[in-house]
Amino acid sequence: MSVLFEVAGLCFAYPRRPPVLTDATMTLAAGERLAITGPNGAGKSTLMQILVGLLTPQAGRIVAFGAERRVEADFQEVRRRAGYVFQDPDDQLFCPTVAEDVAFGPLNLGLSRAEALAVVDQVLARVGLEGFRDRITHKLSGGEKRLVSLACVLAMEPEVLLLDEPTNALDEDTTARLSEILRGLPQAMIVISHDPHFRRRIATRTLRLQQGRLVTPQPVCRHAGMGA
Question: What is the CATH T-level fold of the domain 3-215, as seen in this structure?
Answer without folding.
Answer: Rossmann fold (3.40.50)
